[in-house]
Amino acid sequence: MEFGSVVQFLENKTILITGATGFLAKILLEKILRVQPNVKKIYLLLRAADAKSASQRLQNEILGKDLFILLKEKWGADLNSFISKKIVLVPGDISYDDDLGVKDSDLREEIWSQLDVAVNLAATTNFYERYDVALGINTMGAKHVLCFAKKCVKLKLILPARGKGLILETAFGRGDALNGVSGLDIDEEKRLVDQKLNELRAEGATSEAIKEAMKDMGIERAKVYGWPNTYVFTKAMGEMLVGDLKENLSVAIIRPSIVTSTLKEPFPGWVEGIRTIDSLAIGYAKGRLTFFLGDITGIIDVIPADMVVNAIAVAMVAHANRPFDDAIYQVGSSVRNPLTYSNLQDFGFDYFTENPWTGKDGKPVKVGKIKVLSSMANFHRYMAIRYLLLLKGLEVANTAFCHYFEDTYRDLNRKIKFVMKLVELYRPYLFFRGVFDDMNTEKLRMAAEESNIETDMFYFDPKGIVWEDYFTKIHIPGVVKYEFK
Questions:
Q1: CA-CA-CA-CA torsion sign (301, 304, 309, 315)
Q2: What is the pLDDT of residues 411-460, one digit of tens each?
Q3: CA 123, 331, 88: angle at the middle one, nearest 5?
Q4: Residue from 43, 225, 231, 409 carrying the catalytic annotation
Q5: Nearest-CA neighbor of 309 among 479, 459, 158?
Q6: Annotated catalytic residue, options 13, 26, 31, 235
Q7: Is the pLDDT of residue 137 over 80?
Q8: Which of 6, 111, 312, 393 has an alpha carbon within 20 to 30 A of 372's alpha carbon?
Q9: Which runs of E-coded beta strand occur in 284-359?
Q10: pLDDT tens per residue, range 378-418
Q11: Average pLDDT taken over every residue of the chain
């Protein structure tokens, strides 16, 4: 695998980025504009009713973020002029159809005639998403982007990205199931969703009831074929469609693991949204996390966001105009630089001991080592002693005192059910003992080094991360800053 400069490749290129308001999409956009201001044009596809609302989203949800501070410093008063020359807003929706919901026919024709690279970063990453929504975005959306890309006469590459690598860097064939069960049919899944929605509407179900039914259906269908949740199931089906329908298109699939705050660029610690491990950190800091359920020695695969974006950029160059040289790149850390839950616990304790959270009473929250529940049996025992006995007592008292404690009982019952559902949802990850193969990604890194391209600018080697420094000096401070905002 030989290729040239990433910066030179980006010069005078026309790129489409879907999911433009998402975390990775914004970092990719900023990187391209910063390192190659001579990029010809970047089309940003984002959900919007019209050009005006798309422009508002660009300003409020993208350019208005701290992420773009270096570009603002570089261009100053000329930033808006620069942006207007480089960025074209495309109101649309990848779940809509093969035209991506783009109503402006002139704009569609323009993209089809000029586009060099399509990067699909649109996704819903909620593990417990409505099945109809996840199927529309993660599965059919991937197909729609591919079909749209096929109409682009100059296209050199399409880069679909999906999260949570599943051990091996191998493609899913259409109809493949993780548990070997036969019969997975994507068209049938879509038909089942439509049928269920029609039944619910015919029954006069409320919007909330339909929402919950769709959420439950996603988990149920995922488990039939061995996937732990709706997110990874629908993304896998999207990948199947891309592999099946790509024909002569150059395709490189990026599978990042858990994406965390930036390591270096455009500055350390930029993060947006409280992710799974971040919610644990904030809960711990506030004194609300009383136990950890899982294998404390287990490996958790995380990767800083700027490394994922750099891998995407290098993969662009490596696979442009190479239709028979497709690859799947799992961008993670568990093989090259493993991190354990025990490490995370230590880093959180060290950071919040030195920098305690200030409680609502104005006093610092003192943190300590939390109780570790190493099995589901221990968890059920803990819940029974601490909460279920109390719930049972409330139920008896509520009956005896003419439902005087009804609100308290319902609130505690709701919270317990929510916790149990969350635990069941994340259970496969809490006790996961595997690591994610990244041999293809390592080959890409080595090829980049051997080709002497800008490895200092497009770094993505996880061995370069010192986890203690990253979490205590970069990531946790970044998450705390975001939470306070």
A1: negative
A2: 777 777 777 777 777 777 777 777 888 999 999 999 998 887 788 999 99
A3: 45
A4: 231
A5: 459
A6: 235
A7: yes
A8: 393
A9: 291-293, 302-304, 327-331
A10: 888 888 887 777 777 766 666 766 766 677 767 777 777 77
A11: 89
Three-state secondary-structure class, residue 302: strand
pLDDT of 165 reads 44
Question: What residues form DSSP beta bridges with 68?
Answer: none
Give the CA distances from residue 423 to residues 171, 232, 337, 380, in Å, rounded to whole numbers and listed in that order: 29, 17, 27, 11
pLDDT at 139: 96
Q: In sequence order, what are the beta bridge partners of 189?
A: none
Q: Give the pLDDT band (50/70/90) at residue 269.
A: very high
What's the chain's Rg over C-alpha atoms? Answer: 24
Measured CA to CA, the distance from residue 49 to residue 91 in angstroms comes to 7
The verdict on whether 231 is a catalytic residue reads: yes
The 8-class DSSP code of residue 135 comes to I
- Residue 323 pLDDT exceeds 90: no
pLDDT at residue 162 is higher than 70: no
Q: What is the DSSP string of 72-114?
A: HHHHGGGHHHHHHHHEEEEE--TTT-TTTT---HHHHHHHHHH
- Strand ranges across the sheet with 157-160: 87-91, 41-46, 14-18, 117-120, 157-160
β-pairing, 371-373 vs 302-304, is unpaired
Supply 348's token pair.
Answer: 């959180």
**Side-chain-facing half-sphere of 11: CA atoms under 13 Å:** 6
Q: Which residues contact 32 (CB under 8 A, 6 or more apart)?
A: 10, 15, 39, 42, 313
The whole-angstrom separation of Cα 277 and Cα 286 is 14
284 as an active site residue: the answer is: no
Q: 3-class DSSP state for residue 126?
A: coil
Kindly state the tokens that stand for 14: 């026309």
- So what's the pLDDT on residue 436? 85
Q: Mean pLDDT, to the nearest integer, of 144-161?
A: 91
